[in-house]
Amino acid sequence: MSNQFPTTARVVIIGGGVIGSSIAYHLAQLGWKDIVLLERKQLTCGTTWHAAGLLTTLRDTEAQTKLAKYTQDLYRRLETETGQATGIINCGSIQLAMTDDKAHEMRRGRAMARCFGVENREISPAEVKEMWPLADVSNVQAAFHFPHDGRVNPADVAQALARGARMGGARIFEQTKVLGIEQRNGQVTGVRTDRGDIQAEFVVNCAGMWARELGRQNGVTIPLHACEHFYLITEPIPGLSRLPVLRVPDECAYYKEDAGKMMLGAFEPVAKPWGMDGISESFCFDQLPEDMEHFAPILEMGVNRMPMLETAGIHTFFNGPESFTPDDRYYLGEAPELSGYWMATGYNSIGIVSSGGAGMALAQWINDGEAPFDLWEVDIRRAQPFQKNRLYLKERVSETLGLLYADHFPYRQVATARGVRRSPLHEHLKARGAVFGEVAGWERANWFAQDGQERQYRYSWKRQNWFANQRDEHLAVRNGVGLFDMTSFGKIRVEGRDALRFLQRVCANQMDVEPGRIVYTQMLNGRGGIESDLTVSRLSETAFLLVVPGATLRRDLAWLRKHLDDQFVVITDVTAAESVLCLMGPRSRDLIQKLSPNDFSNDANPFGTFQEIEIGMGLARAHRVTYVGELGWELYVSTDQAAHVFEAIEHAGADVGLKLCGLHALDSCRIEKAFRHFGHDITDEDHVLEAGLGFAVKTAKGDFLGRDAVLRKQDAGLSRRLVQFRLKDPEPLLFHNEAILRDGKIVGTITSGNYGHHLGGAIGLGYVPCAGQSEPDVLASSYEIEIAGERFAAEASLRPIYDPRAERVRM
Q: What is the pLDDT of residue 2?
């Protein structure tokens, strides 16, 4: 193949680290031609070359575990395929827990690993000592062995992938600086380099710690920031032979035997951001200055764990930059701002274990136009535009590096870079005891402290310090009336001559309804998977309001705009224009009638309709819908009137027992009613019929995205069903990814869980295989849920256990 610099390519990949090489390799495996990879200096010279090269099979979700398993299989076969060694060693790994909390977390992880097909076992401190003779195990509370974990030489892996890509026809050009990415009419058209321009249909940004600045040139949001990352390598240690990788999260450390030497690496709680003012383009196989004072606390714990470190000489004390993201998850997918602009970057120190699978997944995604399976947790569309602010990133990544080895408690909140997005009611709620959490940058009241109660989280794997507060709020919604601030809802206005025709095409439910009606629907992909879960309110003949979760707003906007062809339609994000106050509970009608002269009877304002109302001295739209399973209204109020309306509701509510409620109570109410949560219970990988949402699909209306897949599934039958579970023992808690056992065998995992304070036990949702089985067959089995190694009997239901006939919402 000619090595002449090209002027055209189908795809240009920018960045010659392990992920760029992996994408080139996998596109070539799919039969793509005209693949060009550009590297500003030399392959691997940014971050890949100094990575530790650890391969960990179990990740924190099924999708990431699937990718990690694929990565290991790929790295094992690359040498045979390409002739380039990867240095892969199947040495296994051991995780140590020094506290009861960490031991509980690891036992939960062990059960999850069994669900995902990852071999592991709990071992005794004596067994740890046998495998790691140099380690002090005197204070080990629990230990877990993963025999199929391993390690590789990162630079060799990248070179093997690059060689495989070349063998498939890809062309790789080093010493080539990308000057910019060309675009026209919202579409990538090519790249400019110091060696000439290349026209291209696709561009993939794999530029690592330079990716944010490269994205900024085209208005693409890529929130990441480099941090200094430290490890040391000892002088050779006599008798040191191959050992499993040893992780000690409670001490922020990992240990790896490396050619007769020992490596000690760290994920310290407070990291050092680097490159605030930009990163030199001349950076190539460079190191950062040593900072032994910063590393000293880790080394001190290391000497206690490995006493030989006190006398071992230090061969290398390394400090190198790696890029981290605000939520510790990397970015994959197409930029919502620019068609044809793809990315794979921000790997948070797990680039080696991720890049094989991530490269495969992104290549398949580019090729097919749809993600091969649920990748929402790493989808670039979750990133918020404000997150590219450099001060925000500097503050946040100082925390996220250390969170990799921190206790991963349920409901854990980040502590840094808070308060960027606030509801107009934020200070009102704060003054009344609100304890806030963050989602998509929004500060949201999660629970309300009582007078004199500490206003912060005390984390635990058992009942946390706000459990009783959640119970009181939950029961107020069930028996009286509660008020939620849901201003963080994403709000999208779709309007124009062709708005109805457009929404009929992208939504599965019937959109041709009278103005004033609200329709619950999904947007589906070609597989019948759920791309969005939303309500659509018809404002007029030509205008609709779409309400989506705040965390998925950018994803939903991108999906809509992607499918807008030549229709006369305008799509506008109007999230900031209105606050949303949710008045919910059997006494909500009593309260709202005290505030408004409008008619809220079933005849005038039935469920699934909205009306313009007067409230206090302001105006609002009252949407009669619910996410808690009770009579109630979502009140959409202009942000300038939100404080007044809140004050009016609070004043009038004193006589009917109004209680301010947080998102924890909202979630516990919704799971009692078996309402689905996007990203957990329903994803783009979950078929809408198997998710139990067929009632919101109207195939008779004509063609729409996903209709063919719905009809095929109707003909073929369901292969699994989403089931609601209630633990019979009222004490244990469900969160996410606990194992579901059917007649003693693991068949799935809990997709979301919370405590059902009205039902008197933990409630969870999860998919159960049902091919060829009727509903009675599914329910006839015996079910248990495994939590940290202990099994608990569970009641199973295919209908909501709470109010199965939905009578309460229509009171």
A: 61
